[in-house]
Amino acid sequence: MQSDSGHGRPLRVLLLAGTAEAAALDRALAGDPRYLVTASLAGVTRQPGRFAALLHSGGFGGTTGFASYLREQQVDVVINATHPFAARMSQTVSDVTREQSLPSVRLLRPPWAQPGDAAWIPATDLTDAARLLPDDATGFLALGQRHLAAFVGHPARLVVRSLEPPPDDLLPDARWIIAPPGQSVREEARLLAETGATHLVARNSGGSAGWPKIGAAGRAGLPTIMVSRPATPAQQVLETIPEVLAWLERLWPVRDR
Q: Is 3.40.50.720 the CATH number for 11-109+231-251?
C-alpha cells in the first residue's frame, strides 16, 4: 500500500452511491491513505448500510448546487455509481465535471441479457411499457412506487410489489404486495403463479439482486415488458470494481488544486 507521504494530500474522491456496486467500491477503498472518499446518498436511498467513507446525504440542489459542492469541497475525482436509470444525475455529473475539467467515470453494471427461452417485449420507457401491457392482462409491476405514474388508469389488473405501503391515491385498484424482492427464482415463480400474472413489467437494471423475478418469468413462459436503460452521457463507463480501482491508480498522484 502506497502512502501519501511525499505526494501531497490524498485524492479527494466523491462517490455517488446508492447501489451494491457503490458499497463494494467503498469497502475496496477503505483504509487506503491515498484516497479521501465521500459517499453521497440521495434521500430516496433506503437502508443505506454502513460506509467507511464520509457521508453526504440529501442531494446537492441541482446542477448549480452540484457544481458549487465540487468547488467548495475541492473534489478531485467523481465516481458515479448511481442506479442505471439515474439519468438526470448522470447527465449532471457529465456536464459539470467536463465544465470543471475533473476526471469522472461511470460505474455501470451490465444490463441483463435475454435468456434464450424468455419472451421479452422491449419498451423505450415507462410510458411505452404501459402502452404495451394489454388491457386484459394481469401485470406484475416490478418498478417501485416512484415509477408507476404511467399506469394510472390502465384497464389491466395490476399487481405491485413495494417495500412500503402505498399512499391511498396511488393505484387504489391494484393489488399491493408489501415485501422485498424474492431471493430465488423458485420463490419468485411461486409469487407470479399465485398472483395470476400474465406479464412482468421491469426495468433493465442488471445485477444479481433483481434477477430472480426475470428468471422466474422466463421459466413460466410469461412475457416480460423490459424497459431499456436511458442513454448514457458521453463519459467513460466501467463495469467492475477492479476496473475502477485501476482507473484511480492511473490518476495517482495528483497535484494539489
A: yes
Handedness of CA 241, 243, 244, 248 (dihedral sign): positive
CA-wise closest residue to 187 among 156, 226, 219: 219
- In a 10 Å sphere around its CB, with 0-12 CB exposed, 13-18 middle and 19+ buried, how is residue 61 labelled? exposed
228 Cβ contact list (under 8 Å, min separation 6): 122, 123, 124, 125, 204
Output the pTM of the full model.
0.87
C-alpha cell at 123: 419498451
Q: Which CATH class is domain 120-227?
A: alpha beta
- Three-state SS at 17: coil
Digit-coded pLDDT (tens) for 153-184: 999 999 999 988 999 899 999 999 999 999 99
Q: What is the spatial distance between Cα 191 and Cα 241, in angstroms, rounded to a whole number?
A: 33
